[in-house]
Amino acid sequence: MARIAFIGLGVMGYPMAGHLKRKGGHDVTVYNRTAAKAASWVKEYGGTAAPTPRKAARDADFVLTCVGNDDDVRAVAYGDAGALAGMKKGAMLIDHTTASAVLARELHARCKEQGAGFVDAPVSGGQAGAVNGQLGIMCGGEQPDFDRAKPVLDVYAKICALIGGPGSGQLTKMVNQVAIVGQLQGLSEALNFGKRAGLDMEKVVSVISKGAAQSWQLENRWKTMVEGKFEGFGFASDWMRKDLNIALAEAKKNGAHMPGTALIEQYYGRLSVEGRGRWDNTALICLLARD
């Protein structure tokens, strides 16, 4: 059993922290910006809630963060009330936030300065993966730090792998998101085409899902896409847009050309302007269905 602080109880962090307490048997203290959410978690799982990240991190062996973006990570990690101020020497900071590789390297350096470990560990699998403890976790960091962190991460991982040095986990998550939106745009166009052609899409999908067109998105999202259902599940379009902008900024640095990704980011921008930013990221098909 380890002493764990979990910071950020959103749709992903809430069940992940729950697995650490209930399945992993760890001593878990949580912090959330909205205190009521932390109180609800404690009522459901036990453990304790802290009023600041610093107090949550005090005496913890592992401090896990799962918040929104780079600024949110810095807000809970730095400052007098931040997690780093409360972490003991030898503790480990694990960041599950989908953020920049720049931030990951920055946190690694800060942790090393104070004798702590660090692993950037963004996840893939969506809300369902978090609830079911079946996440793909892509990690960046030093091998000894990863070896220490892995038993904790395995509590809610389907696969957990060290990709390379600090920032490598975040770079891998960028690859993941770019691949997903390419699939979603192609799937949106294919399903919209099939509907307009008057085909029985259930029969169409039953055939093409057994061939080269097969994908997780096709098998798990085709029906809601065809039916125009995008609320109350999945991964928000605004979140995907945020992730794509992180990837596009990194591409400017390394010289990668991603014209398709840049175009799809604009499509998500249209959804956001129309007030559909909280809809599942499969809502790309909406932009085709009305044209």
- CATH architecture tag of the largest domain: 3-Layer(aba) Sandwich
The shape, in one word, is globular
CATH topology name of the largest domain: Rossmann fold
How many domains in all? Answer: 2
Strands, count: 9
Structural class: alpha/beta
Total number of helices:
14
CATH class of the largest domain: Alpha Beta
Question: What do we call the CATH homologous superfamily of the largest domain?
Answer: NAD(P)-binding Rossmann-like Domain
Polypeptide structure, described:
It is a single chain. The protein is of the alpha/beta class and 291 residues long. The protein is built from 14 helices and nine strands. The chain has helices at residues 13-22, 35-45, 53-57, 70-77, 83-86, 101-113, 126-132, 143-153, 168-196, 201-208, 216-227, 237-254, 259-273, 286-289; strands spanning 3-7, 27-31, 48-49, 62-65, 92-95, 117-120, 123-124, 135-141, 157-164. Strands 1, 2, 3, 4, 5, 6, 7, 8 and 9 form a nine-stranded mixed β-sheet that branches. α9 crosses α11 (216-227), α9 (168-196) packs across α12 (237-254) and α12 packs antiparallel against α13 (259-273). It starts with a strand and ends with a helix. 45% of the residues are buried.
What are its keywords?
291 residues; alpha/beta; Rossmann fold; N-(1-d-carboxylethyl)-l-norvaline Dehydrogenase, domain 2; 14 helices; globular
